[in-house]
C-alpha cells in the first residue's frame, strides 16, 4: 500500500520532521508513505521547480492512494498544489482521502477574510463574486470528489491548538485507507 | 473538439453571459465549449452541491481538452475548484491549457496579502511557512502540469483593466487548442 502524502506540510519550517512523522505513522498501519520532500532535487539548478514537479508526479504514479492535507492555506481554501494533486489522483481513479484541521464552513472562513453581502440567501464577496454556500468546508469539487473516490473529508470537531502539527485527522484518514 | 471551460467565471454576477461568450468563441474555432453552469441542477435540492459535482464530472469526461481560468481567486492562488479540475483532466491524460489575467509572480502577490520575511533568499510568510520562490505566477504543480500536458500558462504582459471580463488570454488558449 503506497500512499502519497500531499499537503502544504512541505512549506512548514519543520517540513522534514512532519514528513518523517507521517511516514512513521503509515508504517504503523502497514503502508509505505511517500513524502514529496523526499525527492532528490537540485534546488540550485535553473529548472529546480520542474525537477520538483517531475519528482512529485513520479511519486504519485507509484502510489495507489493519496491522503491530502486540505487545511486552508493563505486564504479560505486548501493549498493549490495539494488540490491539483488530489485532482490528479482522482483523475487516475486512485483512492482519495483528505482532512482539514479547520472545521469551519467555507462561508464562515470567507467571511473572516472579506465582507460578505447576503441578498435573499445569495452570498457575494466584496468583488461581487458568489460565495458557495452549501454548508461545506471548502469548494464542492474537492469535497464531493473525496466522497466518490474514497471517503468523506475528515475534520475534527474543533480545530486543534496547532493547525499544522496535529496529525489526529491525518491518522484517521490512514485508518480508513488501511481498512480498504 | 470538446473543451471543458473551467474557472471561477461561474461565480461572476454575469456568469451565464461569460459562459455564452466563451462558448461562442469556441464555436469560432471549430470547437464545442462546455460551461459548467449549463448543467441542469436543482439548486433547491438537499444534494444540490453533489448534483453540481456529478454534472461537472460528466462534462469533464465528455471533453478532450480543458481551458482553465487560473486568475487568482480570494487569495494568492487560483480557485480551488478550477485547480482540482485541471488536476483531474491532467490525471486523465487530457490536453490542458490555462491562463491567468494577473501576470504578477506568486511571491509579489503573496507579499501584497501578507508580510514576507527573507532569510538568505528563503522566503516565509507571517506564519513561518515557506513562500515558493521560483519566479512562477502560481504553485509549481499547476504551472508545470500545463507545460507537460498542453502548453505553458498564458498571461498578458499587463493585467487587463477588468480581470474577470477580459477574454484575450482565454482566446489565446483557444487558438493553441485549435492548432493541436
Automatic annotation (TrEMBL), chains A, B:
Cited InterPro entries: 2'-dNMP_N-hydrolase, Nucleoside_deoxyribTrfase
Gene3D superfamilies: 3.40.50.450
Pfam families referenced in this protein's UniProt entry, alphabetically: Nuc_deoxyrib_tr
UniProt-recorded name of the protein: Nucleoside 2-deoxyribosyltransferase
Organism of this sequence: Tardiphaga alba
